[in-house]
Amino acid sequence: MSIVQTPDFETYRNALIAYIKTQPGFEDYNFEGSTLNILADILAYNTQQNAWNVNMAFSEMFMDTSLLRESIISHAQLLGYYPSSNKSAQAKIRITLTGTPNAVVLIPKGFEFNGKGRASQTLRFSTKATTTVTLSGAGTATVELDLLEGPLKQYKYAVNATNALKQVLPIPQMDLTTALVRIYSNVSDIVGATWFKFDSLFEIDNTTKVYWLYETLNNSYQIQFGDNNFGKKPENGNIVTIDYVLSSGSVGNGAKQFSQKSTLSGVSMSIVTLTPGVGGADKETAEEIKNRAPLNYSIQNRAVTVNDYKIMIQNFFADISAISVWGGEDNKPVPYYGRVFFSIKPITKSRLSDIEIFNIKSFLKERQVLTNQIEYTHPELIDVILNIKCWLKNNSITTGAVDSAIKLAVVNYGASEANDFNAELKYSKLIEAIDDASDVIDHNLTDIRLGYSLYANFNEPYPYTIQFDNAIIPGTLYCDKVLYRNMDSIIKDDSLGKVSIYRSVGGNIVKVIDVGTIDYSIGLVTLPSFTPEYDGSDYLRFTCTPVEYSIKAQNNKLLNLLAENIVITFPEE
What we know:
The chain is an alpha+beta fold. The protein has eight helices and 31 strands.
């Protein structure tokens, strides 16, 4: 029979017919329209189905080629990786209670509030812990509460011979990070014992009260206990309860306008949102599991190197557009040995909330091998300001259309080539992107300046550092608007390393006071005790000219190419 290398129906059918024709009596047999032709079709179809099933079965044996989520999860677990579940968004509110003077008010864990989601849908949020509040003599009290998106639920079952080791929990939207497991000796026991989630077998003996909780078949979860060798095994007749939050995942992000859902007897309540819903995430997709499981295996669930920290943060936290992690020895401008720094550019907002930062740092501290201090720094933007002179081949397209095409090309170039930490804007590629923006462009001449927005503590002395991360030309640092001693002024350097405030007096630019220094080699501006006055602006805008037009960003810096920072002119020949 012919060798078949593709699971194609016609290929199988032609191979079968070719084989039959090699048999005596069938050399010149006409298969078209004959009964034997139908039999060849049936055999070819059966062969194709068997080949497809065998191919799929073998594909599911390897993570890279698996298609079924159950297979991918099984392979991941063999690598010690357990995919994350839905994760509830967290929020913080401040409530003011009014009631009987000196009364004690108990706000139980799971007390519910309604929040408005981004699509104006109503979402349920629950308190993370029980809070006791004593009203003042005037009958009021104010307290801050941490909330989790979703109602507090409980799953309960009795232990028997078949489920003593494992029990399936058919709860697809369960947030595993909120699970609280208690085991009671019998139905009359009202105290019970808390068991703890464990990720490994280290430091476990036959009396350790631990459990493992992970995803299993059919979009469900499974809880597993010890076998009296590794971990204590529950006894028949024990009662297992699992308290958890039913999560909507990323839907809870951005929720605000909280209102009371549950009631407190004899007490009224007013609510102020301190932190809208943040940190909600959907369970990992099959592709995300494929990508993350091998990386997680390589770091063995511990953080030692900078790359280990980066992988663990990406596995734990979903709202990441870009991430940078660096050791304290590489920190600029001052090294801090014994520290690890990280910075995250979120997808859904401009910066992380305090809640998210605290959760990530707590997660890392439990897994780092060395006792490094973990520091977070918000991303800082270095604006790339372009002044483009563009010469055209002809006037077949209006300059307005060319202007729009160039700005779109530059913004797209920035998004694809420079939209990450530690990115580099390559001048030659930028020039090429501008030239390719329209067929009528002959060539261009582009100058670059760098911009930095300093959000100052107005009217208060404070030390500031501005890092452009690139060598800059002396005499080009400039801030065109600052209010000092109630007079409009400017800030610039003197080309010798001093930064000063100047103002116009009688048509002459006069120095008022020195406010700092500048290191031209690294683009570092230091203002040790700077006190700008508030003039209605949100920030002070500093610009400078770099020595080289290939611009780099380091550590927590991001290059920012915006259409509003592009000026285009069309010189006439």
